[in-house]
């Protein structure tokens, strides 16, 4: 536009100038946002995306820790996946993992965590602080430390539990390995559910509970008709998180090592046994990718339920 035209149309020129300045500011804002996000994206790519892609690649090869396959691995396609799915040991580990997750996370942690949050919601004083402190301590201690503490508790010869019960020689980890790791994981992970439900119970209007009590509703009826309708989203979120954490938990290895005779060999321990003890990194990577797919199915199922509850 010439100067003469600009002089005849000063308002239009001012509007175009403001648009250019707005576009420049928007571009500068996007550049700054990219600069802030870029380090996080690099870390995600290095520590998450690249290892995941490398695991997928290894799962398609016969790569081993030793032997000629370690020097020059060959592509085997889906052979590792077919071998794993047809392996009775993998199938047994999968069902053990489902029982472990259902017993310790869905029933144990979620149930006990809600029970503690419900009982402590109206309590004050040192008793509440003592219970909360004990539960939180079990959660914040390192996994290895907690594992060895429980190993000392359940030991057959000098275990604390046998001393308290008067049952010397009772081999809890040998006779009841799955039950032992379920109780262990319930004790260790209940704190998260307790804190989540304690915060969620604050959103339940006290007037609704008081009305239900005045109407003669029992505790079960109060929970069913008043409390749980307010906590559905929290319950699903909690179940999603603790199920995924438990499904990928390796800590039971400290207690049982997957034994005896594979009766506590959940999938993370199975992967360790195949990949590191057996040296079959390709097969172990394939099983790891199968675990990733199972986790994805769990997550999608929970998210679908969560969206359904929102609607």
TrEMBL record:
It is a multi-pass membrane protein. It is found in: Cell membrane. Residues 95-302 form the ABC transmembrane type-1 domain. The keyword Lipid metabolism does not apply. The chain crosses the membrane at residues 33-57, 94-118, 130-153, 165-187, 235-255, 281-303. The keyword Oxidoreductase does not apply. InterPro entries: MetI-like, MetI-like_sf. Keywords: Cell membrane, Membrane, Transmembrane, Transmembrane helix, Transport. Its main location: membrane. Residues 1-20 are annotated as: Disordered. Belongs to the binding-protein-dependent transport system permease family. This is Carbohydrate ABC transporter permease. It comes from Nonomuraea typhae. The lineage of its organism: Bacteria, Bacillati, Actinomycetota, Actinomycetes, Streptosporangiales.
């Amino acid at each position: 536009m010439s100067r003469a035209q600009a002089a005849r149309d000063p308002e239009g020129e001012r509007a175009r100038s403001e648009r250019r300045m707005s576009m420049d500011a928007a571009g500068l804002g996007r550049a700054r946002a990219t600069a802030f996000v870029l380090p996080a994206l690099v870390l995600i790519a290095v520590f998450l995306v690249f290892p995941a892609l490398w695991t997928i690649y290894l799962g398609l090869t016969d790569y081993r820790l030793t032997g000629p396959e370690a020097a020059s691995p060959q592509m085997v396609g889906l052979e590792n996946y077919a071998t794993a799915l047809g392996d009775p040991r993998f199938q047994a580990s999968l069902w053990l993992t489902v029982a472990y997750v259902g017993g310790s996370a869905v029933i144990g942690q979620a149930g006990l965590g809600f029970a503690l949050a419900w009982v402590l919601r109206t309590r004050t004083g040192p008793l509440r602080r003592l219970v909360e402190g004990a539960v939180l301590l079990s959660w914040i201690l390192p996994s290895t430390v907690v594992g060895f503490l429980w190993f000392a508790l359940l030991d057959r010869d000098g275990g604390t539990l046998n001393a308290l019960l008067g049952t010397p020689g009772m081999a809890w980890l040998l006779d009841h390995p799955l039950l032992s790791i379920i109780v262990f994981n319930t004790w260790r992970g209940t704190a998260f559910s307790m804190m989540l439900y304690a915060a969620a119970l604050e959103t339940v209007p006290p007037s609704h509970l008081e009305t239900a009590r005045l109407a003669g509703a029992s505790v079960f009826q109060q929970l069913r008709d008043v409390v749980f309708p307010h906590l559905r989203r929290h319950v699903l979120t909690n179940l999603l998180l603790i199920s995924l954490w438990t499904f990928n938990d390796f800590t039971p290895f400290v207690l049982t090592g997957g034994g005896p005779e594979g009766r506590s060999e959940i999938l993370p321990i199975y992967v360790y046994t195949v990949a590191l003890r057996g040296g079959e990194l390709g097969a172990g990577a394939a099983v790891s990718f199968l675990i990733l797919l199972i986790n994805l199915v769990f997550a999608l199922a929970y998210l679908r339920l969560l969206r359904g509850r929102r609607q």
